[in-house]
Amino acid sequence: MSEKEIRAAFVGNPNCGKTTLFNAITGSKLKVANWPGVTVEKISGEAVYKDYHLTIVDTPGIYALTCYTIEEKVTRKCIMDDDIDVIINVVDASNLERNLYLTLQLLELGKPVVLALNMMDIVKDRGMEIDLHRLPELLGDIPVVPVSAAKNEGLDILLHAAVHHHLEGPTGNVMNYSEEIEEKIEKLEVIMEARYPEHSSRRWHAIKLLEWDEDVREDHPVNILNVADKNYEKEIIRQKYKYIDEIVDEVLFHKQEKAAMTDRVDRILTHPFWGVPIFLCIIAFVFILTFAVGDSLKAVFEVILDDFSALVHNTLAAVHTADWMISLVCDGIIAGVGGILTFIPNIFILFLALAILEDSGYMARVAYVMDGIMGKAGLSGKAFLPMILGFGCTVPAIMATRALETEKDRRKTMFVTPFMSCSARLPIYVLFADIFFGKAAPVACFSMYVIGLAVAILIARIINLFDKGTNNESLLIELPEYKKPNAKTIRIYVWNKISDYLTKAGTTIFIASIIIWFVLNFGMGGMVENPADSFGAMIGRFMVPVLKPAGLGMWQIGVALISGISAKEVVVSSFAVLFGITNANSPEGMSLILSNIRSSIPGFGPLNAFCLMLFCLLYVPCAATIGTIKKESGSLKFTMKMVIFQLLLAYAVSVLVFQIGSLFL
Amino acid sequence: MTLYEGTAGKDYEISGIYVENNITRRLEALGLNDKTVIHMMTKKKHGAMIIKVRGTRLALGKHIAKAIEVKECKA
Prior knowledge:
The complex is a heterodimer of chains A (665) and B (75). Helices cover 61% and strands 8% of the residues of chain A. The mean pLDDT of chain A is 90. Chain A is of the alpha/beta class and 665 residues long. The longest helix of chain A is centred in the middle third of the chain and has 44 residues. In chain A, helix 12 packs across helix 21, helix 22 runs parallel beside helix 25 and helix 24 runs antiparallel to helix 25. Chain A has three domains: 165 residues, P-loop containing nucleotide triphosphate hydrolases (Rossmann fold, 3-Layer(aba) Sandwich), CATH 3.40.50; 75 residues, Helix Hairpins (Orthogonal Bundle); 375 residues, no CATH class. Chain B has 75 residues and is of the alpha+beta class. Chain B has one domain: Roll (SH3 type barrels). Chain B is built from two helices and five strands, in the order βαβββαβ. Chain B has a five-stranded antiparallel sheet. The longest helix of chain B has 9 residues. The interface between A and B is large, with 41 and 33 residues. Strand 9 of chain A pairs antiparallel with strand 4 of chain B.
């Protein structure tokens, strides 16, 4: 079969369902959520239609083909440079008016455009109707295909349209501007043709020159001053919207306001006064659920893990495996990796709750609700979105800072996001809070999240003071309609996170556990009986005097903290391996940890445990985060400064809390 | 008057936008042009607000709200 290649790009406004459609067509499992700016990078996938092989590119959502933000630059570059054969313009049909603005710009490129009308079900629910015969006529006879990404409807028709429209090509000019502007476009087209005869999107370039588009002017240094003596962007935008008004008048019927549900919910959730307390209550509810439900489910895992370890131990012993090998497998790998797996119920609940929050449409509201508090830190409320994502995992949170307008805002947000307590730190809190805080354990755990949030905002404020920055009051974000979270979206989201966690357990934590086992079982004279003679103890002892003022003067803690840089869960793994505990997260495991710690530091109590939790919250982020920050900031110096700052801060805070706490307790 | 001085629940017609060029263009691309009608949904004390324009809800900071010159629409 001779396959023909076509390259198609999904382009559209933020939050119009490009990625849901992309997932449905290519069978990918990319993250989807109901707030603008989820996709920050272009991603490609494959699809086959008849004997055509389509490479489909999903792009970050944009409102216009300008180049003010990173997303716009990424998407525009993708369309212009990546020899895209056909543009599939995904449009939120329930919001035709705004979405068509980008459509008109895409049509000017002179490339084949297919319109995918997504969210038609919402249009129907609201009692609106779209004239599907008149709409294509007004858009230069391009194919207009109603689709429902969520229900897998219209996908084949869309691929068919993409293939045949690619063969037929565009039909030419769709909308004409006023005579004055058309005349100038014509002149500029002539100039462009003379200078760049190979250019395909001549009209688009001419219009962009009239709009004084920086990138186009830089790439095409032609003298246009005798044609375009001023910037015509405003006039061009105005005329486009005028044309859109005409289209909407002709094709949209019963444009009634039935979006009342969202407005009613918003009256409560975005209330000028109650907005912030409601947000805090929602977050508190999420975390308390994470601890309470997660904890009640973990007993199941404990039984499985104990049985599994005993089985492996007995089998290895039965086949006369060397003792050191049994120790490596049972005390090293099973203890290190298995202990981490028992926290899966907590992780599951946390991500389930975050997924529901993200898919409901509440996330964008949080940006508005927190805008006042963030503004005083010199950041817009939008910077709070990456920070919330940080509750899940810092790595995607750092990536999400791309949606921020300026580099300065990005840096500052990257700097404070690691203070938001990620899911990897959860096992540490759960374990130590359970051992030392009894009934108050959920409160102790939750306090870490509040402290992390407060530290992040405080640090941002201090940076702003040093920068002599002013309050940032430039929030600009679209608030989507609320919707019932989609089961498939939630499943993809949660499964992605759980599989990341399992992968981490199978790779980073697995390797870290072996290394920890090694440094704890070998010393200068080969394998050692007593871990106190091991390499690990030698390294850890260096840190004892340093950690002592924070109430953590124990070489084992030093070892655990150093190994925790590979991944924060490894702090827990280390304790398991250190004390040879199969399941650190079981009652026996906990009492073993307690007795071992107390044998070194007899008075180790809740205050010490609290300081340990604090230190883990604030100190150096994990290796993966450091790598991401380096990549996203493009600066090793910035990354190093940040790592050192966090280490010092963690130390200062835990010493301070321990010293002051000791006076009272 | 500017949008910042407006009251929640009322409709306003835009008569001009006077803010940094990139933000102006952004607002215009979002459909906030001269004569566009805005409905103010809610407003916080420090000036951030939620507006509805061309069927979309937008959250705006004080800086932007102060830069949008409007006329009140007669009900």
